[in-house]
Specification:
- It comes from Kineococcus rhizosphaerae.
- By secondary structure, the protein is of the alpha+beta class.
- It is built from four helices and 16 strands.
- The chain has a single domain, classed as 2,3-Dihydroxybiphenyl 1,2-Dioxygenase, domain 1 (Roll).
- About 20% of the residues lie in helices and about 35% in strands.
- It has an eight-stranded mixed beta sheet, with helices on one face. Strands 6-7-8-5-9-12-11-10 form an eight-stranded mixed beta sheet, with helices on one face.
- The two termini are about 15 Å apart.
Length: about 230
């Protein structure tokens, strides 16, 4: 039985501050996490919460996973960027070309995200969070298709994308990671088993997951947890 996405976890040196930043960008209420840190329930429900987890380890290099935010017009794209900059974000250079119209920013702890141009057809129909975009092989994309029970909505070369039948963000995997992995991913998923956890764990391992301490790893080495 496929499992559900419970939260997108984000390691944070200052969880409350980072949650407040994303609340300004996405809307929604920040609430304390009983286990430490903060939760954000975005104003437009993407089907999961953002969970900001305390860490003492600063980020190192670019993240393997980031958010792509949608916009409905040029004015809306400009407004999202302005909100983010006013709340403590900054422009981030990933080598984007001058003719590319998406904006790449970083949050106050250096986590990259994109504000996508309004005419982007791939994210048409998605909410404010258009995609969770990650580095991952074709095998990783197929793993997430089967783990979540979501259909494949894009598959070309090594690129894959899945999306819940109910809509919401696409989970996209852009191919084999370009850069070597530097420690544990700062952004990772928490999944929730719908039935027996042990049976679900066995199913995920059979699909290609690997155990790594308290984490599981997808076929490209991206951490996630099964609650």
């Amino acid at each position: 039985m496929p499992c559900d996405v419970a939260a997108l976890c984000v390691d944070a040196l200052d969880p409350e501050r980072l949650a407040r930043f994303w609340s300004v960008v996405l809307g929604g209420a920040v609430v304390p996490d009983p286990e430490g840190g903060s939760f954000l329930d975005p104003a437009d429900d993407p089907g999961f919460r953002l969970r900001f987890v305390p860490t003492t380890v600063p980020g190192s290099g670019r993240n393997r996973i980031h958010l792509d935010l949608t916009s409905t017009s040029q004015e809306d794209q400009d407004a999202i960027v302005a909100r983010a900059l006013a709340a403590g974000g900054r422009p981030f250079d990933v080598g984007q070309l001058p003719e590319e119209r998406h904006m790449v920013l970083a949050d106050p702890e250096g986590n990259e995200f994109c504000v996508i141009e309004p005419e982007n057809r791939f994210l048409a129909g998605c909410g404010p969070i258009g995609a969770l975009s990650g580095d991952g092989s074709q095998a990783a994309g197929y793993f997430w298709r089967d783990a979540l029970g979501w259909p494949l909505v894009w598959g070309e070369g090594t690129e894959t994308a899945v999306q819940s039948p109910a809509g919401g963000p696409k989970f996209t995997w852009g191919g084999d990671p370009v850069e070597p992995k530097r420690g544990r991913n700062r952004w990772r998923l928490d999944l929730r088993a719908r039935g027996d956890r042990r049976a679900e764990l066995d199913r995920l391992l059979a699909l290609g997951a690997r155990a790594d301490g308290s984490d599981l790893l997808d076929p490209s080495g991206n951490e996630f947890r099964l609650l």
